[in-house]
Design the sequence.
């Protein structure tokens, strides 16, 4: 009696020795969401958590990418230093969210594109600094298409144009499933950055794309970002069911 | 300190999520490590207790450095704490380095180029007990094994001291004995879950095995060898007769997608009480049939026969061919616990061919579930003498967009009803499925009351 048909192993728990590191990323699929309206921070956080939880439980469940804008807020990483908030914490001008990502305090607001990527790095490359550099490259490629020179600064994470930081990066990772991602300042009001020391970098100057391309809008940049993310991480966009 | 990237030489401990003395479950996050702008939750790879924190939050440690100790039992905490200040793991003790499963992967896969880098970057002893090859695994005196594992081990001549246990607290299960012996692990035919049985995530493992052994994985089973013709056994003959007879029945099919998140939650809660998914589904079907007597009815030469009971038969494939449909009597009125007990008993006796005819031929409605194999949908053949059979697929994650534009992942299970159109009409089937879906989606807790 051949029992192999039934040999569905019972032990594919978190401890199973699945080495899923492929010989470098073949394509994988992900859902792409581009909400038309501005999204409250905690709402998008819930979306990411949901996908991350599913991916942790089932490594082949769908990955997801969001390109969206937030209402004005500050976010802190788990290791963030509160000294970088230039106001009393209980007297904040804007909502402050403490989230599970690396890096120091940052600021979101309309006019800035936030990109969230919930990817299973086991399907890509299990290397967090590789992932951070790839996220930077996503932004640099987009700037290139806009004929702006984007660059990295040695020892730091993020993307700069001339001496101004236009793109920030911060991620969290659990069992190689990522959350959070990047933000790119397009035509936003940068005044909120004066209330914090962005990324804990004392002398950093923050810029936005409209400093170089007057009149540029979020809707001009989103399609470029969408393609850049797709190409960089070799993603196929899944179709979305709408049963309701 | 786990390596979060190939170039990482040290990591900063952002936060310990557990205190010394805290119980830690396998897969639970123990601490957060930051490298650059990335945070990683580092998880324990086993059940145990966090005995001590060697590197406190805020400190940085080179990759491979011992940052904390996890022990198996509460009794070992003090012993481990006594040894704790030493940055290198004590050999031979129970202490285990806290590191993520991913790191072990790297350590054990020597052929991976990354592993070399990790080793170079980690002068401190890194080898934790769990990265020791399974073949070399030795239990230290205390052997906890299930009765079935002990029996199997003595039958197969396996020394339990050399078997790694995968059960709670390292308890040795029958499967561990089988895998130690290199035998394929068999799971019972009636997997008690409606989830896809993690088949996809097993693919890499199967591939690995096939490389190791040079043998391709078996695609499925057969009862005979190549070139042979094997006579049907009695059970197979009976199935053949029924299947042929079903060709005289004018059947139609109607399908429905049911969200199962609520049902899954309920299942998780009551599983410890011994309630099985089969019992849950049978009960849901039973209760819905009580409200839809037409779907419980059957064709007879005199007219439509309405049975006095609701008896849900559940198809079970037999390992040596054929299938049998043990019956859960009065599925609408019997409690989940009783249904679960009855089901376990029926399956056990079905395997030993000890079922009375009444126990497998009195079904008024049949349930066939292939969800445990990851099947997303199928259709079933109607057993003669009944009006309908429900084919149940796996509950799979689907992305759904709701009216307000929010997007979420829901578990969705496809069911497909095959019915005799002489008795049950399309609208009857549709209303039955709609009610069943409502019960499972919106009111699963009524099943347990």
Sequence:
């Amino acid at each position: 009696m051949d029992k192999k048909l039934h040999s569905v192993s019972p032990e594919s728990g978190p401890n199973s020795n699945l080495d899923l590191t492929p010989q470098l990323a073949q394509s994988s699929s992900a859902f792409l969401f581009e909400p038309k309206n501005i999204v409250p921070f905690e709402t998008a956080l819930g979306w990411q958590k949901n996908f991350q939880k599913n991916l942790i439980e089932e490594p082949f469940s769908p990955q997801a990418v969001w390109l969206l804008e937030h209402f004005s807020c500050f976010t802190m990483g788990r290791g963030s230093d509160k000294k970088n908030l230039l106001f009393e914490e209980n007297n904040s001008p804007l909502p402050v969210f403490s989230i599970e990502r690396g890096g120091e305090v940052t600021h979101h607001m309309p006019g800035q594109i936030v990109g969230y990527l919930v990817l299973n790095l086991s399907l890509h490359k299990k290397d967090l600094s590789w992932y951070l550099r790839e996220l930077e490259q996503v932004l640099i490629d987009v700037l290139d298409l806009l004929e702006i020179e984007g660059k990295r600064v040695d020892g730091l994470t993020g993307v700069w144009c001339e001496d101004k930081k236009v793109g920030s990066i911060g991620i969290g990772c659990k069992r190689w499933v990522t959350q959070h991602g990047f933000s790119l300042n397009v035509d936003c009001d940068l005044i909120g950055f004066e209330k914090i020391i962005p990324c804990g970098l004392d002398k950093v100057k923050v810029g936005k794309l409209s400093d170089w391309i007057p009149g540029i809008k979020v809707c001009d940049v989103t399609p470029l970002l969408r393609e850049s993310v797709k190409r960089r991480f070799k993603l196929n966009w899944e179709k979305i069911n709408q049963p309701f | 300190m786990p390596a979060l990237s190939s170039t990482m030489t040290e990591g900063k401990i952002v936060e310990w999520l557990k205190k010394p003395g805290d119980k830690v479950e396998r897969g639970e996050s123990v601490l957060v490590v930051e490298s650059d702008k990335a945070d990683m939750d580092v998880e324990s790879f086993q059940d145990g207790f966090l005995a001590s924190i060697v590197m406190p939050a805020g400190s940085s440690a080179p990759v491979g450095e011992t940052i904390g100790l996890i022990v198996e039992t509460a009794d070992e905490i003090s012993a481990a704490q006594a040894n704790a200040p030493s940055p290198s793991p004590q050999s031979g003790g129970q202490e285990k380095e806290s590191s993520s499963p991913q790191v072990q992967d790297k350590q054990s896969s020597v052929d991976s180029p990354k592993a070399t880098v990790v080793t170079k970057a980690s002068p401190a002893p890194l080898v934790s007990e769990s990265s020791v090859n399974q073949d070399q695994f030795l239990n230290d005196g205390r052997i906890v094994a299930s009765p079935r594992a002990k029996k199997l081990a003595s039958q197969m001549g396996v020394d339990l001291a050399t078997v790694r246990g995968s059960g709670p607290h390292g308890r040795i299960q029958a499967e561990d004995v089988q895998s130690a012996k290199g035998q394929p692990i068999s799971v019972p035919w009636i997997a008690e879950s409606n989830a896809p049985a993690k088949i996809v995530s097993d693919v890499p493992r199967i591939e690995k095995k096939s490389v190791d052994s040079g043998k391709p994985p078996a695609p499925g089973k057969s009862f005979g060898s190549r070139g042979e013709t094997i006579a049907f056994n009695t059970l197979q003959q009976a199935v053949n007769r029924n299947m042929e007879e079903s060709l005289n029945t004018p059947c139609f099919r109607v399908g429905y997608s049911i969200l199962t998140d609520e049902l899954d939650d309920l299942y998780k809660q009551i599983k410890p009480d011994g309630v099985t998914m089969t019992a849950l589904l049978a009960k849901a079907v039973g209760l819905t049939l009580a409200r839809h007597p037409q779907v419980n009815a059957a064709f007879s030469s005199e007219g439509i026969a309405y049975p006095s009971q609701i008896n849900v038969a559940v198809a079970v494939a037999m390992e040596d061919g054929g299938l049998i449909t043990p019956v859960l009597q009065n599925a609408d009125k019997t409690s989940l616990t009783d249904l679960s007990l009855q089901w376990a008993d029926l399956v056990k006796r079905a395997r030993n061919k000890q079922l009375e005819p009444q126990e497998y031929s009195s079904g008024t409605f049949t349930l066939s579930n292939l969800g445990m194999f990851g099947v997303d949908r199928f259709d079933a053949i109607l057993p003669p003498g009944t009006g309908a059979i429900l084919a149940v697929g796996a509950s799979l994650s689907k992305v759904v967009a709701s009216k307000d534009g929010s997007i979420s992942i829901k578990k969705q299970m496809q069911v497909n009803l095959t019915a005799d159109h002489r008795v049950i009409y399309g609208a009857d089937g549709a209303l039955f499925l709609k009610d069943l879906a409502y019960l499972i989606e919106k009111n699963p807790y009524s099943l347990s009351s």
The longest strand of chain A covers residues 164-174. Residues 142 and 225 of chain A are 6 Å apart (CA to CA).
